[in-house]
Amino acid sequence: MFATNTFCVTAILSLGTTLLDKQIITDVNAVVIMDAVVYFSQVAVYDFVSVPSYGKAIVAARNIFNIIKRKPPINNQSTDGDKIPNCTGHVDFKDVYFVYPTRRDSIILKKFNFTIKSGQKVALVGSSGSGKSTMIQLIERFYDPDFGQIFIDSKDIRSLDLQWYRSQISIVSQEPALFDTSIRENIAYGDNSRQDIPLEEIIEAAKNANIHDFIQQLPDGYETSCGAKGLRLSGGQKQRIAIARALLRNPKILLLDEATSALDSESEKIVQEALERAQENRTSITIAHRLSTVQNCDVIYVMHNGMIVEYGTHADLLARSGYYYRLIQGKLK
Ligand SMILES: Nc1ncnc2c1ncn2[C@@H]1O[C@H](COP(=O)(O)OP(=O)(O)O)[C@@H](O)[C@H]1O
Ligand SMILES: [Mg+2]
Question: Cys-Cys crosslink for 90: which of 118, 124, 132, 243, Cβ 3.0 to 4.6 Å?
Answer without folding.
Answer: 118
